[in-house]
């Protein structure tokens, strides 16, 4: 293993962590943002929906940009834009300024998420063993740090820009320096990426046909994730009768268990293979939602949300990794398209659970993400190693080692 790859892995993990910090600082201070700009409850959903929609546009644009610009360069410049846009959200005064800052944040996040996972997939291919979960573990750690910083700002009643400015001043130069060691390794036959991207309607149909199961798994995983993010506190307080303080605990526990699961998840993939890990994760997450739906009290409900975190945490990283194995000659395009369904799940999940909770019951609503996560079992075989569909036969043995759990070294 070369020093170049080790530095590339460390710098990319740091980039994932920074993104976790930035995103947590935004979403955990939404009430403060609403108060600062006077955004009404009726208008707030439109602002919140705009971010994932624009992120999806940014992800789709990345698929085209990487034909001419390396993913490392896109990541190098999109991450500072995300941090500056976050500062803009905290420093603005008028509604239009908030709209511009959120638009910049959303577009840049789409480019950042896609390019970050492109580099993760290519590094895993270069390593010859599963390392994708470790990058997402860094993101979870960053989310915990960001949420903690947000709590400090809220506890001390600091202005948003006062909370955000020190973070941006520290992280902005750090990511610019760290980006020097990003590693681009697209793999596959020379020119395969360009052929895959320019092969016309037939080539795109083939990509979508094989990518569709992974797109569905990505959507279902993020429906589950957004359910926990948006409804766990309300569920514990309104349905299970917990105190307001106790109701804030499940999401924090969820983030911690996500970090722990991802930190050890790569070992499970190397030992048992991606298919087994995905199946186990889906069963654990579905079991967690079942516990939540039937919980007699708050502590059992928290146990359920903990199980959800342990199960869901492996699905998204392994979905990106599986896309890289399915299309080693066109992994950048596959990752960019797959990343869009991250935002689709986020947009669907929260309104779906809220509508079902109002029309039916919140206990019943928790069964919907449970069923959707179980559908992942139908598509689990899509996570097995596949031959290169674009003719890069020399990749076959190394990707097979990753799928079976071999270390490739």
From TrEMBL:
Residues 391-401 have a biased composition (Basic and acidic residues). InterPro entries: MFS, MFS_dom, MFS_trans_sf, MFS_Transporter. Residues 211-409 form the Major facilitator superfamily (MFS) profile domain. CDD domains: MFS_MosC_like. Residues 388-409 are annotated as: Disordered. It is a multi-pass membrane protein. It is found in: Cell membrane. Keywords: Membrane, Transmembrane, Transmembrane helix. The chain crosses the membrane at residues 12-30, 42-62, 74-92, 98-119, 131-152, 158-177, 272-293, 299-323, 335-354, 360-380. It holds the Pfam family MFS_1. This is MFS transporter. It comes from Streptomyces venetus.
């Amino acid at each position: 293993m070369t020093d170049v790859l080790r530095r590339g892995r460390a710098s990319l993990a740091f980039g994932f962590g920074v993104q976790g910090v930035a995103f947590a600082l935004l979403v955990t201070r939404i009430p403060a943002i609403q108060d600062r700009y006077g955004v009404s409850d009726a208008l707030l959903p439109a602002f919140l929906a705009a971010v994932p929609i624009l992120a999806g546009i940014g992800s789709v644009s990345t698929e085209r940009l990487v034909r001419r610009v390396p993913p490392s360069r896109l990541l190098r410049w999109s991450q500072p834009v995300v941090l500056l846009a976050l500062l803009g959200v905290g420093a603005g005064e008028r509604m239009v300024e908030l709209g511009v800052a959120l638009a910049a944040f959303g577009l840049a996040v789409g480019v950042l998420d896609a390019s970050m996972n492109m580099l993760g997939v290519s590094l895993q291919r270069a390593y010859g063993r599963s390392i994708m979960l470790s990058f997402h573990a860094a993101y979870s750690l960053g989310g915990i740090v960001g949420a903690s910083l947000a709590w400090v700002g809220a506890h001390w009643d600091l202005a948003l820009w006062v909370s955000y400015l020190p973070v941006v001043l520290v992280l902005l130069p750090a990511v610019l320096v760290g980006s020097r060691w990003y590693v681009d390794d697209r793999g596959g036959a020379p020119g395969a990426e360009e052929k895959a991207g320019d092969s016309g309607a037939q080539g795109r149909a083939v990509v979508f046909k094989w990518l569709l199961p992974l797109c569905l798994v990505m959507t279902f995983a993020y429906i589950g994730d957004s359910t926990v993010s948006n409804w766990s506190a309300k569920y514990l307080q309104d349905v299970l009768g917990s105190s307001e303080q106790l109701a804030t605990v499940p999401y924090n526990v969820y983030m911690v268990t996500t970090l722990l699961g991802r930190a050890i998840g790569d070992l499970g993939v190397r030992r048992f293979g991606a298919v087994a890990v995905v199946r186990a994760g889906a069963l654990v997450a579905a079991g967690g939602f079942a516990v939540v739906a039937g919980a007699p009290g708050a502590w059992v409900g928290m146990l359920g949300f903990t199980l959800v975190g342990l199960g869901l945490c492996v699905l998204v990283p392994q979905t990106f990794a599986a896309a890289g194995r399915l299309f080693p000659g066109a992994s950048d395009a596959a990752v960019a398209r797959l990343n869009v369904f991250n935002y689709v799940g986020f947009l669907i999940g929260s309104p779906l659970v809220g509508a079902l909770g109002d029309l039916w019951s919140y206990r019943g609503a928790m069964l919907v993400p449970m069923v959707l996560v179980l559908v992942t079992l139908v598509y689990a075989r899509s996570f097995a190693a596949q031959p290169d569909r674009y003719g890069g036969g020399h990749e076959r043995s190394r990707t097979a080692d990753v799928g079976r759990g071999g270390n490739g070294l």
